[in-house]
Amino acid sequence: MSWHHLALQSPLVSGEKTTAIIEDKEILVCRVDEHYFAVASRCTHSAWPLASEPIEGMEIICTLHGARFDLRDGCPTAGPASRPLATFPIELRDGELYVSL
Ligand code: FES
After folding, report:
1. What is the distance, to the nearest Å, from the Cα of residue 17 to the centroid of all Cα atoms in its chain?
2. Is 46 in the pocket of ligand 1 (CB under 6 A)?
3. Fewer CB atoms inside 10 Å of the end CB: C or N, the chain?
4. Neighbouring-strand partners of residue 31
């Protein structure tokens, strides 16, 4: 397992998200309160980009057709998506974020 430092323009505040490219893979990095999540950046239903989609509680909502995903495990909590988002380990170390693919 290899860890990659995320060089963000500015620290994320709660409810904020950004995308990052790691090993040619685009991931979505989200913060909810003091928790950070790294998930696949596209909806598993029809690959809609999630970077601008809203977060409610611990869920991200794909507004194209209404699917919702729990950021903690990527699992859909509302259809039409039935497959989970890929999730990746993420850690905050001395104020810097690291993601493992
Ligand atoms: S593309 Fe996300 S719900 Fe259809």
Report:
1. 7
2. yes
3. N
4. 36
| Domain extents in the chain | 3-100
pLDDT tens digits for range 79-95: 899 999 999 999 999 98
Of 42, 48, 68, 85, which is best to mutate to test ligand 1, by the most ligand atoms within 8 angstroms of its C-beta? 48
pLDDT band at 7 (very low <50, low <70, confident <90, very high): confident
4 neighbors 83 (Cβ within 8 angstroms) = no
Cis peptide before 89 (omega within 30 of 0): no
With a 6 Å cutoff on the Cβ, whether 65 touches ligand 1 is yes
Q: What architecture is the 3-100 domain classified under in CATH?
A: 3-layer Sandwich (2.102)
- 56 and 69 Cβ atoms separated by less than 8 Å: no
Residue 63 φ then ψ, to 5°: -80, -5
CB distance 85 to ligand 1 below 6 Å: no
For residue 88, what are its two tokens?
Answer: 């990746």
